[in-house]
Amino acid sequence: MTVQTRNPMSTPGQPWSAADVAAWRAQQRRQRSYADDVLLPLQQLRPHFEVLPYGEVVCGDEQNPTDRYPLFAVCPAAWQPGLPGVLVTGGVHGYETSGVHGALQFLAQHARAYVGRVNLLVVPCVSPWGYERIHRWNFDAVDPNRSFKAAGLAPEADALLRLVAPLLGRFVAHIDLHETTDTDESEFRPALAARDGQPFVPGSIPDGFYLVDDTENPQPAFQQAIINAVERVTHIAPTDNRGEILGSPAVARGVIRYPLKALGLCAGITGARYTTTTEVYPDSPRATPEQCNTAQVVAVCAALDFVLVPSAFPSMAA
Question: For the packed helices 220-230 and 289-307, what is the interaxial angle rounded to 10 degrees?
Fold first, then answer.
């Protein structure tokens, strides 16, 4: 759908200065609680799962911090040799609510069914500052989901890269949970153009669920298995009149492809054979928040079930 945009502060042709970033930051307000919405549910998982601290995001600086956010991952059971490793991430863009709540819902309702079958590592909220302020960016006006190219681009990305580094080579799949919202077009893309001193080119938002596969490692059967499962709970995004979704050619129903590693996207960090980025559309009149959360859960379960088929992971058939 087409969304009317708001004009963020900008000087045409000039990227934001440090003062502009500070002015932008001063406009952001805490609208929900990471402690209540994420940390408390994680604590409730402790009798059953291992909840692992893997870092801290300090906003401001060590001498004058404005906020400190402890970061946690969940490992339902000790890793077992010979089982496929699967990483699930949510909240890389903190404002994308169903990614966070879907990951937590999966842990509470379904993760135990996979214990002893896969080695699961779940990170429900990668970007807590953005979660609380319902924003795409972090404290420094940086998009964490373009910051997995190298260390030092965003602390949220750095912490996650350190977490998975000892496990590289053990992951067979990575499911990164996202949303595409009307505010992408009305707020965040205009802000991106303003921040970088570029003209804003209006676009449209697809109405429905879709997936982002990896251009360099396409896995169409994996994507199709997820689409088939998710369409039972929410609708799949159609293409526009050019056969595209969000400006990219659809390679299958509800599937586009990006070069994950080149763009610094979270879904490219493990080198896993099977990767996908889910995109739920919470602003659709045809979807409720509960459906959006459920769509994320169903996507994770479908990905895991696909991986557990012996032909998808040959060493399991031995």
Answer: 140
